[in-house]
Design a protein that fits this description.
single chain; 419 residues; alpha+beta; Heat Shock Protein 90; 2 domains; five-stranded mixed β-sheet; two-stranded antiparallel sheet; 7 strands; 63% helix
Length: 419
């Protein structure tokens, strides 16, 4: 029972391979369509170039056989040419079997059509279709290699037996040699067809593997980007919020900051996200982020006069910024401001100086606090290394620089220029 089931599955796969079109193999389909078109022209051309062979075959057969054999040759050839201009190759399997069936039918009908007479000239042909006994095999080779070989053997045996009957009135000792020679000679063309189809399939497999590799690389890159985003959120917002908690009256800004961190962690970037941010929206985000950390931080626009008109004038020549640039700059600034709160001292003053020229975005976070020696920061302190320098270095065109001395305050320059 199991053996029968396995045989049925193999037969099902065999039939599906012959009749089904694999639309995922465009190069193989292209090779098959071009091959079918070329072979179809061959089926039509043989009756045109073999009038002498057709006439000699008519001398030993009934009058109806020659036109019927021509029809069985030309008909499938025309169908191959017509269908070769269609998309896909689901039609090729049935037409290949039809072509071989038509050829075998023409040979089978030769026997009842044979008058029993033989040819007087040994150079004449009693079975004119023997000239292209390998053509149906080449069509089948486009679809199924083993079936193409089987059809070549069957067609060669049948055509050469009928040929010897029409020439000699019986089978001679040369029959086996003629069959073997026909098979060997035609096998060269079958090999060409086989190589062409395998090349097409290899090209499709290579393309599919390339697409798969590119997709895996893109997925890995996306995972790394998302991991970096989560790491930055955890450090810049979650840990920063926890470190800012102190005994006493709850700070509503911490609650807002924690809620924003949770929303950012839960957010899944999608195609609907904005791709660019206007200068006015960029400034609003900068001010909002600074106010979330401390209301005493002042945000100044370099080159803007006092009042809204001066600010609008400073922003007038600026172009929109990519959203990933604005997010990276704002997060780096937020980390710098949190460092001011944690390390600069309670009496330290701090200002954020922003410049929004066309094609660039830069700012400086300046404080007059305790300051520190940047070279003395240990590798375990990821605030500056990851959240400021690392974040900006991953951004094409981004950069960050930290200048500080003990007792002289700190200046952190954050910038981006359009590549």
């Amino acid at each position: 029972m199991a053996r029968r089931s396995s045989s049925g599955k193999r037969r099902e796969r065999w039939l599906r391979r012959i009749f089904a079109s694999d639309s995922a193999e465009p190069d193989l389909d292209h090779v098959r369509r071009i091959g079918a078109r070329f072979l179809g022209l061959g089926f039509i051309g043989y009756p045109i170039v073999l009038p002498a062979a057709i006439a000699s075959s008519a001398s030993v057969t009934a009058s109806w056989w020659v036109p019927l054999s021509i029809l069985l040759s030309v008909g499938p050839g025309i169908l191959l040419i017509i269908f070769s201009f269609r998309r896909g190759t689901s039609w090729l399997g049935p037409l290949a079997l039809l072509t071989w069936g038509g050829y075998l039918l023409s040979i089978a009908l030769w026997f009842p059509a044979w008058t029993g007479s033989t040819l007087t000239d040994p150079e004449d042909v009693a079975q004119w279709t023997i000239a292209f006994c390998g053509m149906p095999s080449m069509v089948l080779m486009l679809v199924h290699a083993r079936l193409g070989v089987v059809s070549l053997v069957v067609s060669s045996v049948a055509s050469h037996v009928s040929q010897q009957l029409g020439r000699f009135g019986g089978v001679t000792s040369d029959l086996l040699f003629e069959i073997v020679w026909s098979i060997v000679f035609t096998s060269v063309f079958l090999a060409v067809v086989l190589v062409a189809t395998r090349t097409g399939r290899h090209l499709d497999e290579t393309r599919e593997e390339t697409y798969r590799t590119a997709a895996n690389v893109a997925a890995a890159s996306a995972r790394e980007v998302e991991k970096a985003r989560f790491d930055a959120i955890v450090h810049d917002r979650v840990i920063a919020s926890l470190l800012a908690v102190e005994p006493g009256i709850p700070d509503h800004r911490l609650a807002t900051q924690a809620r924003s961190a949770l929303e950012e962690l839960a957010r899944v970037p999608g195609a609907d996200d904005a791709q660019v941010v206007s200068p006015a929206e960029t400034l609003r985000r900068i001010r909002s982020a600074a106010a979330d950390i401390s209301e005493r931080f002042e945000v100044q626009i370099l080159g803007a006069a006092s009042g809204s008109d001066g600010e609008a004038t400073a922003l007038g020549e600026s172009a929109d910024y990519p959203v990933e640039v604005v997010e990276a700059v704002v997060e780096a600034m937020s980390e710098a401001l949190r460092n001011v709160v944690r390390h600069a001292g309670p009496a330290a003053e701090c200002a954020v100086i922003v410049q929004l020229p066309a094609g660039a975005l830069s700012m400086a976070v300046v404080d007059n606090g305790h300051g520190f020696d940047p070279d003395s920061v240990g590798p375990g302190r990821v605030g500056i290394a990851v959240s400021i320098r690392g974040r900006m270095s991953r951004l094409p065109g981004g950069h960050a620089q930290v200048n500080s001395r003990p007792g002289r305050g700190t200046t952190i320059q954050i910038g981006w220029e359009r590549p």
